[in-house]
Amino acid sequence: KWERGFARVINIQGTDHHGTIARVRAGLQAAGEGIPEGYPDYVLHTMVRVVRGGQEVKISKRAGSYVTLRDLIEWTSKDAVRFFLLSRKPDTEYTFDVDLAIQKNNDNPVYYVQYAHARICSVINAWREKEGGHRSALKDADLSALDSPAAQALMLQLAKYPEMLTDAAQDFAPHDVTFYLRELAASYHSYYDAERILVEDEKVKQARLALVAATAQVLHNGLAVLGVSAPEKM
């Protein structure tokens, strides 16, 4: 991989392979190819426990019993599997709760985030159908009307996205993206409960629509990074 031009390589293994890190790196140093110290990088994962129907699904290498990713996807969904497995640090213990992953309520983190996106799309679609509005018109909205604590909190949360994403990429920390999306969804739900969006005042309405449209875009982008869909209806 070094000879093919890959200046950065990440090996993903289980924590029981920790002892191989120093040996692999030392071997590469000894190859005399100019490979830098600390090459390759490593991300080590602990085992994942699976709970279904309130009972732990027994996994035994000796008995040949195990749960595959295909099993998890069939029991829940691709979106739930991706979001749940990415929502923890790789070196921490994690329990995948199958029953939680199929719930359609706010206790299910992937549903909570996706519902925020769908909720915004519903508002924008209602505006479009009633008034013939289009998202492109919102780019020129006067945002001075967004002076309430709930609106300010949502805007501050949106402003964190670029730096959060950069740090997550540099630190091999996709779980930071899941944490951020849950916080953003919570900020939106709080804002939605605090202020009506489709009001009579055109200036205020345009500003609030611009804010929620931006929120939907960031939710969509963050979910796309994780490989999770952003449905417009739920």
Tell me about this structure.
The two termini are 44 Å apart. It contains 9 helices and 5 strands. The chain is 51% helix and 9% strand.
Brief account:
With 234 residues, this protein is mainly α.
Break the fold down into its secondary structure elements and pairings:
Elements: E1 10-14, H1 20-30, E2 41-45, E3 48-52, E4 55-56, H2 69-75, H3 78-85, E5 94-97, H4 98-101, H5 109-131, H6 149-159, H7 161-170, H8 175-194, H9 202-226
Parallel strand pairs: 1-2, 3-5
Antiparallel strand pairs: 3-4
Helix pairs in contact: 2-3, 5-8, 5-9, 6-8, 6-9, 7-8, 8-9
Major sheet description: 3 strands, mixed
Helix content: 40-55%
Head-to-tail CA distance between termini: 44 Å
* Lateral strand order in the biggest sheet: 4-3-5
**Dominant shape:** globular
Radius of gyration: 22 Å
Instruction: State the total count of DSSP E strands.
Output: 5
Percentage beta strand: 5-15%
Model regions low in confidence, pLDDT < 50 over at least 5 residues: none
Query: How would you state the average pLDDT, rounded?
Result: 92
From N to C, what is the helix and strand string? EHEEEHHEHHHHHH
Structural class: mainly alpha
Number of helices: 9
